[in-house]
Amino acid sequence: MAMIRDEMRKAFHHKRCTPPDYKRLYSAIQRMHRRFGNRKDPGALAIFGESGCGKTTLSEDYFYKYCPYNNVSEAGKQKIHTVVWIEVPEYCTIRRFVTQICKRYGIPAPATDNADQLKDAVLAAMKSAGTQLLIIDEAQQFLSSNSVSGAKQVGHFVRHLMDASRVPFVFIGTPGYQAFIDADEPIRRRIKRRETMRGFTAPLEEKSIFHFTVLAMLKHLDDTCSRRLCSKLSSLELSQRLYLMSGGRIGPVVDFFDQYIEDEIEESSTKLTFGIPECLRAMECFDPPFEFHTSKPAFELNRSSLPKLLTKYPSPEAQ
User: Does residue 163 share a domain with residue 47?
Assistant: First the structure.
């Protein structure tokens, strides 16, 4: 028997599990990307989904496929950013939005509040870096401006940036972001396609996507760390407790397994199986950002109460 090592932990994280709509929406982003150079007005794609359903994983994965690289030519060395991914900051203003973009390009943001100068700076950076697609994550933060007029100013700025750059945009945000789009008719017209990223449905039976996802993670855990479930805890029961613990989101489930691995390393454990006691120990140090409201924490519930709770919470939106 052997202890889990840090390299095993890293290997577990390299094995990805993705949400149900991942492939479909990844293809939608690809199609929007291909509009660059083929459309005078490439427009934008809007993706909506509840917090924690995997939107950021989707956008990060597409961004990292097109990592920035140095292009060396007769003109010298130039940093190419084919795809740029940014997160909209809280209490967004035009200047704060532009600062986020400049950070991604690795250039200083202009020390001005003049919208035209800020727009010109972004356009120059996009052109110089050969940008073909701009992914804007956490787009609901456009609505977090200190005032309604401030939100409108940001919307006006984004709209002009889309038109002047002729680069396709992808907006990714919570369902509330639709209000930002629908309230601005010119932006609404520029959205060529809308998509929804659905969450997981409750794993009432083994033939559910959430259960299949947990099974994949258990296989990754076994392959990388040689740890598996004990005979007293079925994989379906684990899936059901993880569903309640995570609020039906994939992120907290991955973090739960990471916490379990961390505990095993700290305890120098050589035990090859885990059950409810180990899950409870992991939860002592793990505070999930999403969870369904139950009478007791997910791993302290009576097994017989699980089906009723899953019926009460059939999806993340049921909270």
Answer: yes
